[in-house]
Structure prediction request, 337 residues.
Amino acid sequence: MKSVQLLGYGGNEALRVNQVPVPEPGAGQLLVKVMAAGVNPVDYKIRDGKLKPILPLRFPQTLGGELAGVVEKLGPGVSGFNVGESIFARVDKQQMGAFAEYAVVDAAHAARMPSNLSFEEAAGIPLAGLTAWQCLFEVLKLQPKQKILIHAGGGGVGGLAIQFAKNAGAYVATTASPAAKAVVEAYGADEIINYREEKFETVLSDYDHVLDTVGDDTLLRSFGVIKKGHTVVSVAGVPEPQTAKDIDKGLLIKSIFWAISSKIRKAAKKAGVHYRYLFMHPDGKQLSEIAKLIEEGKVKAKVDRVFDLEKATEAFSYLETGHAKGKVILRVRSGRI
Ligand SMILES: NC(=O)c1ccc[n+]([C@@H]2O[C@H](COP(=O)([O-])OP(=O)(O)OC[C@H]3O[C@@H](n4cnc5c(N)ncnc54)[C@H](OP(=O)(O)O)[C@@H]3O)[C@@H](O)[C@H]2O)c1
Prediction:
């Protein structure tokens, strides 16, 4: 089968479309005939070697973190799924493998695909959707009527986060360029700050939460927007000591995270607020809840561009501009099954 593999850390020149054997599902796993796969910033960060300390690879490595497709075969002990069913999933973080004609997925990480989505729309939901969900409901414990600032509302994570937060009854401000304004309005954002013209911290104050998907200066300035004692959660800043615990890492990684987050933690302390960094995790149950919201028409999928699997490097280059409006997708097979 065809698969997009990374031959070693580097740029797009390190990617190849290779022929590899179809994988066998192990206990508790599904073999999925992949129809489409979502491309995410983490894919080019992995390619570059930026995740090496926490995700060491053996090359060649088939890339790809999320997919939509059809169950081809059940591994031993799988219940709750049938051959021929359409599913979507965030694949195992260590194993990856979604950029291929077939992939193996833990049944616990998969959910039935919303019936009102195409495979291409569905493939872009799991990774960004679970990230947004876990930030809002696991870390921030967002409640109705609370005010939240969600950065980069035009992006994959930000767009789904706005929709989940609105559906939970929150008041949502977002940062977006003029090119993304119509997109974030359609998601239901209450207040849109053109980050190219205005400084959000001069417009917003006394917020309950911030979800940061940009990092750097945007993250540091976010500490001035929320109430004392409240939390800024980031997925684009720097991991902190609690993150090491979340991902079951020991003292060495905890010390590294402690050291690299010291500037950010000091800034948070000075502002009297908390800083958390979240690494998302696959979760089939949460994905089923997201699928329900999509089927009820409460959350929409937004695909920006679709590239054929063989054009993966073009998809990477486009996403790396940092200005996608919605999701970038690899089409593995055409049509509905
Ligand atoms: N820790 C985790 O588990 C985890 C999980 C998922 C994602 N992430 C990280 O989260 C980040 C976002 O991911 P994504 O998938 O949402 O990326 P994405 O889809 O590529 O986001 C692109 C969006 O960012 C907007 N943007 C760029 N600069 C901005 C700024 N300064 N202020 C506000 N908006 C800005 C762009 O809007 P304009 O074009 O309008 O400028 C564009 O719409 C990435 O760094 C990714 O690696 C981490």
Notes: Residues 40-42, 45, 127-128, 131, 151-152, 154-158, 175-177, 179-180, 195, 213-214, 218, 235-236, 278-280, 319, 322-325 surround NAP (CB under 6 Å). Residues 126-139 form the longest helix (14 residues). The longest strand covers residues 29-39.
